[in-house]
Design goal:
The complex is a heterodimer of chains A (about 230) and B (about 250). Chain A has about 230 residues and is an all-alpha fold. Chain A contains 9 helices and no strands. Chain B contains 9 helices and 10 strands. Chain B has helices spanning about 40-50, 75-80, 100-110, 115-130, 145-155, 175-190, 200-205, 225-230, 235-245, and strands at about 5-10, 15-25, 30-35, 55-60, 65, 85, 160-165, 190-195, 210-215, 215-220. In chain B, helix 4 packs across helix 5. The chains are: A mainly alpha (about 230), B alpha/beta (about 250). Chain A: This is Amino acid ABC superfamily ATP binding cassette transporter, membrane protein.
Chain lengths: ~230, ~250
């Protein structure tokens, strides 16, 4: 039978691992967002060679499981650093913490998904507004920052929320490289009392609450932004 | 002449839309362009404002000589800053209020201080009777109001010339009058304008000259009275008959 007391007693222990889950998700999103903006610009500007290379990279990342990507970065990144050291770079392949691996793998994953979302949010802004800005003599860059980007951000939020929530959930895999986040902690606690259902239920509740809170926050931000210029 | 264009050619995907347009307009003149859909009127206007890039052609705009096939970036920007455009679908900035739609060009194209730009925009809105709408966003305005804001956005820039691309085509019939009213006031104030429209009544009253476009060429031009009552070209006559029948 479900041992409610054990579940209750373990809850705090498992919750204590939540900050690591959030840290990986947030850092990966920030790194991914910065890279995604650059990728989206390069692809929209159709920069020769670079745009094509990035398109392949993005579809590669989107077409493979994140667990595989995590392992590839885990085993590949140190080797890359060894290679870079042989080129004369001052790298230290042995001192690479697992958390950096997690930031890199999830950051790249976020980059791929976010860059596609940014492009579609950009395309959903009516391009005639950009033309109108140019036609009144506004410089192209100002037209982008004043007119296009604010609308793009509003359009981006729903997809951004999905990607961020997916990242939070996908971080459950980083216990595979030795990081103890919510899922890893649940594994450890359950192996003590052999009460798996109880601890995984704890993890479930924690994930649901975290995701619900973030979904609400982003929903509020979006409606605040949109309310300003779209009547109900 | 304020603006002269010689031998303007423009193709899209190998299809020639403009087949050598020669055109000129004097300061204060009002030219109305008519012609069937797809005849190249809109493309012509967009080339004048460098929203499209011509394949061939020469422009003289207020003494600036520009090779339309390879316009210098600075020259293009100069032309845009001394001209303005009113669009068929208004193309207002959706994330800006009516007031901000008007100030944007003053602030970011002409480098005016924000409070000065706002004073000008408020004055313009008041003269149009749209002060109530100053803080509303485009989605909260009727089509007619949006287009009137679109015209105000163009006129506050004090441009040498305003290009109108079918400004009333997307409007409900009862909203057309207010937009044409604003354009009449501009005409009376001596604003140079090129207007693409199917509003023949307005053209007859307000235009100094009518230009008839067909299949990428100027077929005929002349004073409204002469053009409408005694068109010389067979295509012009056919088009005018069709348009009158439709009305």
């Amino acid at each position: 039978m479900f041992d409610l007391n054990f579940a209750r007693a373990s809850f705090g222990q498992i919750l204590a691992a939540a900050p690591l889950t959030l840290l990986v998700a947030v850092v990966a999103t920030l790194v991914g967002l910065i890279l995604a903006i650059l990728v989206a610009i390069a692809r929209e500007k159709k920069i020769p060679v670079l745009a094509q290379v990035l398109a392949v990279l993005v579809s590669f990342i989107r077409g493979t499981p994140i667990l595989v990507q995590l392992y590839v970065v885990y085993y590949g990144l140190p080797q890359l650093l060894v290679l870079m050291r042989s080129w004369g770079w001052n790298t230290n392949p042995d001192g690479l913490p697992a958390i950096v691996i997690a930031f890199s793998a999830y950051g790249l994953n976020a980059m791929a998904n976010l860059s596609e979302s940014i492009r579609s949010a950009y395309h959903s802004v009516d391009p005639r507004q950009y033309e109108a800005g140019i036609a009144v003599g506004m410089p192209p860059f100002k037209t982008m920052t004043q007119i296009v980007v604010p609308q793009l951000i509003t359009n981006l939020i729903p997809n951004f929320t999905n990607i961020f929530l997916d990242l939070i959930k996908d971080t459950a895999l980083i216990y595979n490289i030795g990081l103890v986040e919510i899922m890893g902690q649940a594994n450890i606690v359950s192996s003590i009392g052999f009460k798996y259902l109880e601890t995984y239920t704890d993890a479930l509740v924690i994930y649901i609450v975290i995701c619900w809170i973030f979904a609400k926050i982003f929903q509020l931000i979006e409606s605040q932004l949109r309310r300003r210029y779209v009547p109900n | 002449m304020l603006l002269t264009v010689n031998d303007l050619h423009k193709s899209f995907n190998g299809r020639e839309i403009l087949k050598g347009i020669d055109f000129q307009i004097d300061k204060g003149e009002i030219v109305v362009m008519i012609g069937p859909s797809g005849s190249g009127k809109t493309t012509f206007l967009r080339n004048l404002n460098f929203l499209e890039h011509a394949d061939q052609g020469q422009m003289d705009f207020a003494g600036h000589q520009i090779d339309l096939a390879k316009p210098d970036k600075k020259e293009g920007q100069w032309v845009r800053r001394h001209s303005a455009m009113v669009f068929q679908n208004y193309s207002l900035f959706k994330n800006k209020t009516a007031l901000q739609n008007i100030t944007e060009g003053l602030i970011y194209a002409q480098g005016m201080a924000k409070d000065k730009a706002e004073a000008i925009a408020k004055h313009e809105l008041a003269s149009l009777g749209l002060s109530q709408e100053a803080q509303l966003y485009p989605a909260q305005l009727s089509g007619g109001q949006q287009q009137r804001i679109g015209i105000a956005r163009a006129t506050v820039l004090n441009p040498e010339i305003i290009l109108f691309d079918e400004p009333t085509s997307a409007l409900d019939p009862e909203l057309v009058g207010s937009v044409l009213g604003d354009m009449r006031k501009l005409a009376e104030a001596g604003q140079t304008m090129i207007i693409v429209t199917h509003q023949l009544g307005f053209a007859r009253q307000a235009a100094d000259r009518i230009v008839f476009f067909d299949e990428g060429k100027v077929i005929e031009e002349g004073a409204p009275q002469a053009m409408f009552d005694h068109p010389q070209n067979k295509r012009t006559a056919q088009f005018l008959t069709a348009l009158n029948d439709a009305n």
